[in-house]
Amino acid sequence: MIKNYFKIAFRGFRKHKLFTFINIVGLSIGITAALVIYLIVQFDFTFDNFHKDSDRVYRVVTDYSFSGEKGYNNGVTMALPGAAKTEATGLDIVAPYYLMGSVRANVPNGSKTPAKIKDVQLIFADQNFFKIFDFKWLAGSAATSLKDPGQVVLTTKQAKIYFPKLDYSEMIGRGIIYDDSIKATVSGIIVPFSKNSDFAFHDIVSYISGTTQSYLKPNFNWSNWTNTSSSSQLFVKLSSGTTPGAVERQFNAMLRKHHPRTAAEKNSTQDFKLQPLAAIHFDQIYGGMDGMRTASKTTLYGLLGIAAFLLILGCINFINLTTAQASQRAKEIGIRKTMGGSRAELIMQFLSETFLITLLAVIIAVALCPLVLKLFSDFIPPGVTETYHFQPALLIFLLLLIVVVSLLSGFYPAIVLSSYQPVQVLKGQSANSTGKTRGAWLRKSLTVTQFVIAQFFIMATLLVSKQIYYATHKNLGFKQDAIVFVSTPWKAKPEAKKVFLEKIKAIPQIALISVGSSPPSSNNTMSTSVIYSNGKQEISTDIQQKYADANYLKLYQIKLLAGRNITEADTASGFLVNETYAKIIGFKKAGDAVGTVVKYNGNDKNMRIIGVVADFHQKSLHAPIKPLLITHYTTYNNGTFHLALTPQTQGGNEWKTAINGIEKAWKQVYPDDDFEYKFFDESIAKFYTAEQNTGKLLNWATGLSIFISCLGLLGLAIYTTTQRTKEIGVRKVLGASVTQIVTLLSTELIWLILLAFVLVTPIAWFAMHKWMEGFADRTNISWWIFALSGAAMLGAALLTLSFQTVKAAVANPVKSLRSE
Predict the structure, then answer these.
(1) Nearest to 539 by CA among 496, 585, 570
(2) Hey, which residues does 272 pair with through a beta bridge?
(3) What are the pLDDT digits (tens) for 473-529?
(4) Which of 219, 255, 330, 593 is the most exposed place for a label (fewest CB within 10 A)?
(5) Cα(751)–Cα(757) distance, rounded to whole angstroms?
């Protein structure tokens, strides 16, 4: 019986090649999207979900506010971990660690190992780290390997880089020197996690080493309750029955106990929060683990929506074309019922046909998936392409997809077709042939749904493109083009920086040089607290700070509104502030703030405001402009060189010559470090990588949705003209023009597209409005976005319809009427 079902199905496919092709193409596009998106979503939702008791593991983070300005930090004060161990209850494990970041490793006793290994991600942790996160040990033990100062635990990957010819047991006791200052001895070897994890550290030095080595002591001040650094991380494992809220209350009580609030801090807050381990990979506020990418749940859910929409479009095509063909199969159904065929058998026949088409579409999707992954390689996380193979979970997903799509596409057509009465259909009275039944209304409703989805994608694409253009072309308050910045090694000696400066001054293609910290707009944030007293109250403000020299404003063309520029003489006595800070402390006119004395770095010292600069964006347009001060650099914060290049002549290579000159100077001064430079305008554009990836994805989704919708529209047009062949012939004989016939055949479908436009416009506006709320500075939602999308969809539909309607309208009426 099953063999007979498939044999009949293949005969039908050969008879209706075009409709079969349209169905397979529509479904294969939707299934390919679903498969690729499944791989992405499954990849991100499996991060760190394998740890034992992960539901009781939390990261401690810090929320704070100054005069209404909110801030978030994924670190804690250095004093909290020690107090948590001795004063807090309800905790099974307290595991602090310190993120040292990227360092150089020197392995004196390595076997044929390079003298220095660069970009080593180093952390400091204690034994409790291994009580929360269970690693497999190949040498050493979790109980003792980080107990004493100067111990380091390596992952197998890193150990083989340092000691490629030694067994793991032979590596114990070997020495490693980090950044020529941190001396450590190998005490353990662990196997890195094989599953997806944000804990990608390879060198773990004992936490207590931070207090025994003079170089590290300033960073490991375990009595400090005031400074919060993202490098100081803390994980806790709650006891069974303990709630996160109870622990938060204890931590904040400790903070108030050890650091009572002063009068100047009455308008500020600082609170510790507990963040679930499962939330870290998706966090967009505090940030994920250092150096690791974070995923957006909103984006992932949006991807699932796109996959669902494209699948629905393919299914709609199948339902529309199958029910439209119902009259052509009516006699087949009538004869089979007359010969004793049951309705259940007919339903199985039609479902088997759908199953075959879906199976073919899945095979095509599996073949296309690697190509799509490669096409979107800059958008898709690298781990997705590395793990793409037929895992059990992937096979189960494909089987479920086949079943769901087969039922979704084939169930309704099977019910409709199997319901025909043999007497009526054999008399040529098939209800569906009138075009005025529920089937006709269903086809119209589904067609409207198709074009609602397609037009939504068009509108979303136009808005995202408009916002990206606005963000990348807006005047941010500073010059962006023809500026290169180079950051020297963070441990570079002041003398080396002076030598490097003198060498690049001699490059003729460099017009101006400024030395300091980060550019005007960057992801690097440095902040301090400033207290201003107006005689009646003290206003404490968390204020971002940048270090610069006198050339900084000139090089970036930042407007000085009042006062004067900074000089080297102002290093310890004065600084510039932006308009936002001047307004926060009560000055409506910028000039009135000049000369004001404030307490810098809390109560550390008095500093004078010597000038006020115009506001500029310190980060992307997602974030509002924050209060800012610019002070002259000191010996320790002059690591970035900002270089304004001379104008490049047409066809010239002045910029290339300048960069080659900078690289030459770099290699002479810093031979052990890689030379890296960045164009400032390119670094600004990278702020919107996520939006650009979203735009690219929407472009493809829009194109595919229009393609699938127009395929279905073409199929319906072919069916309609075929059904009305004789009517068209009669009308032409009676004098109807080609234009009139094309209008007749197209009008109904055009009205459906216009109805879809009316329905989708308010939905799209609401969705756009919600998306735009993520930008502090944003473009407006223009009316032309909706008008253009409607016109584009209407134009695509008319072009699609014209292929068939014009062909039918110009056909010789004699051929269509000769059988009458």
Answers:
(1) 585
(2) 62
(3) 788 888 988 999 998 876 677 788 889 999 999 999 999 999 988 899 887 777 777
(4) 219
(5) 10
